[in-house]
Amino acid sequence: MTTEAKRLLPLQERYAGQRILLTGATGMLGKSVLEKILRDLPSVEKVYLLVRPRRSVDAIERVDWEIIRSPVFDRLRSQWQSHFHARMSSKVEAVAGDLALKHLGLDDAAYEKLAGEVTMIINCGATCSFREEFDRALQVNALGARRILKLAQDAGNVPLVHVSTAYVYETTYELSPERVIPLGHTLRTLKGGLAAEFSLDEEIDQMLARCAALRAATFLERPDHSPGENGRAVPVIVQTRGRSRRNLSNRAAIEYGTEVAIEHGWRDAYQFSKSLAEQLLARDRGSVPLSIVRPSIIEGTIAEPVPGWFDKIRMFHPIAIEYGHGNLREFAGYADTKLDLVPCDLVTNLTLASAPPDDPTHFEVYQIATAQRNPVTFGDMSTFVREAYKRGGGELAPPNWKDRRFKWTPPRVFSGRLERARRLLKLLRRLLSWLGLKGPARRAAVRLRGLSRLKEFVDVYGFYVERSPEFDTDNSGALLKALAPVDSDRFSWDIDVIAWRDYVVNAWLPGLVKVAGDPRASAQRPPADTRSARGQTAERTSDERRQVSA
Fold it and tell me: Is the pLDDT of residue 172 over 90?
């Protein structure tokens, strides 16, 4: 049978008897992929979930608390009723592992067992924070992808689907293509027409070494005093000193990652590390059939399993939530800038449909994005969000919500105002402290921290509010047309069907408000009484620092 004929097989047949390793299942896309497999691909034999244990929570507990109990499975819970847990147990198996470790953190026996069982791999695992420690981003996103590829090879060159991001290959004046950046190039050398001088392995080793050196230097140079609330130096106790050193060490690795990413032409370490992963996979894949899926910004579902499902608040979501609370009426950006959003369930459908045939020559890149064919702007989004709050009444907005137009301000103007406000607030806090007014001084300090977080938010997401590249989607469009008729509805990712006003008003914002107040969305760990307070604190810090998802 030809490769093209295999691609047209109904997905139920394509996935029949497959034993799939799925990474990133604790993230939004990974959860959605797992739910779709269980609901619409019952011919799949088994799904192995590679899940990283935490200090006081093992992989099985994480699967239970962060995945199985997620609201995304409510539809299956309703369908399967009393059989839900039995069916989940028969189909899903947790594997304790870590993308950042050799052999995925498995011992030799466990690794060989896994390699002998899996027949397909879907790699949704990544650290998706734009402000991630660079050494971790390299280990998880870049080298983690290579470790997954090695498993695919050791398993007998089984098909591999790797989820990347459309922003790895951003161009300025043309559609960003569905191909991997040529080996030896960076965005800087490619755009500048310069020679291919980037030695992939050598550069990654050097960047990891630089991170290690920065961390070591930070620990050596940490002072024994830190500024107190009133700006005066106060002694640092031993426990606090250790935590401060770790924070400074992490910050140094974060800043270095941003610096080196910009130097090579990317906007942040996330884009850079995901591009490195693609180059490693393209170079080293050998006979592994490979599909790379590149979504733009993944958002709440449009239809499945329910409209408006999110797993957590991220990226631009706080703007909409704070506007609804009356705390934010203006932000940096341009109303006519396109915002490239893609509902999660459409990305899920493409991810599953892109599973390569058993053909060692197969290597394709599929992008899914909306800005070029079905765009929505920041101005559109703020208008629709305002309309949703007005329509939703008390179900969405607080009782005291006031209808006010949201304003987009040029980033430089907004940042300038923000910086002036921060300076004035710093002076006010010092004055209040000098006068001995502790209560007002503390409130000023809280407001100052809020402005500092807002400034960091502008810095991190400034690229996305100023302009949006547009992405070629010809490959994914051709694949969509090649779907078997039986799959054309259930597995469609046709972005032309998105009606943005209806999506934002009736799905996106209601779902966002729900997840902001749904305790299950933040139920990332077993009850407190099963673990020590010290373990809770350590894990909470880790959760805030690392957003590991697709």
Answer: no
